[in-house]
Amino acid sequence: MFIEPARSLKGELHIPGDKSISHRSVMFGAIANGRTEVTHFLQGADCLSTISCFRRLGVEIENTPERICIHGKGLHGLRPSKELLDVGNSGTTIRLISGILAGQPFASVLDGDASIRRRPMKRIIAPLREMGANLTGSENNCAPLKIDHAALHGIHYISPVASAQVKSCVLLAGLYADSQTSVTEPYVSRNHTELMLSAFGAQVSSQGTTAAICPEPVLSGQNIDVPGDISSAAYFIAAALLVPNSEVLIHNVGVNPTRDGILRAAQAMHAKITRLNEHTVSGEPVCDLLVTSSNLTGAVIEGGLIPTLIDEIPVLAVMAAFANGTTVIRDAAELKVKESNRIDTVVTNLQKMGADVTAADDGMVIHGGKPLHNAVIDPHADHRIAMAFAVAGLCAEGGVEIENAECVSISYPGFYQDLRVLR
Ligand code: S3P
Questions:
Q1: Is 247 helix (H, G, I), strand (E, B) or coil?
Q2: Is the pTM of this model over 0.85?
């Protein structure tokens, strides 16, 4: 896919539904009693993998363009799957569903694509085993995972990483434990599980970096309207900031404070972004974002800010490459274990375009302001790398060519069309 440079971006956009919230709506709807109806569900490949796994576990799920409807089976109503559960490319599916399956009275096998088979699963195997779960991975603790029946005990888990996937996995297993389960993280990660499970009727509490859950709740089906995904909005936020003479209004973006780090980082870089029409949808803060072209400056992105913008770091690095001054991204070693090693994929592709950037073990340093030029971008089948470099192409001399550009369908099937509309 060739991305031509843009002279200006103008218009309004509705971003597809939030990926994290869409996954959770299916999972929690499946183990609740009664119907769960979900509007603005993200029809990306990852969320479709979650639907397909729960169908295999005996849950009826209707999927129409207007809504999805999940006919919940209750906490103890899932049935064994005859085939293995294929999570495709989705880390959220495999890690969260493992927590649910650890509490079932039957065996399951989970597997996924080549990227999933490389991603670390010890981070969920260790706490689930501590709870008593019967769970094995491959030799190096990766997928495929085999999970068999075992009685689970409540634990207090101190997680070495700030990861909502780990936290959610342990809390979901906690639904099936014999006493309270809690997780403490180094920094607070996204809290959609805590918010949504408590709307379904679970007893969940959060204090500082600790979240706790009580076992055996009665969960009741809910109506969920999924906010637009700030991780998908981030590409258009960056594009409107970087392309001169641009003004873009992005509607209905989820701005949960555990997810809105990209807005805080952009503000530190002197971006002009206005939050309009702030309100709450299905317990999640939402607003419209008015973004206008800005002269960006470098910033230091670190510490507790990192988990709140972890998926936006590739596009943030692109913003930094066009900003004046130096941007330092640190405390972000988690980037190495995403869909690709995002320190490598960002740094090598930016270097190909002529940027002054060096990799570090936990991030990168970008000396911005050098003009970028045309290059062929290999996204390593990582949707977020493809979209971040499409944004880079809008501002590079000669644009960019993105190989395997269709990998964006993991989280944003209509990405290139939406970009065309704004040109
Ligand atoms: C997600 C959590 C994040 C994020 C991923 C989605 C979730 O992963 O990178 O895209 O839905 O819980 P970690 O929690 O492992 O950082």
A1: strand
A2: yes
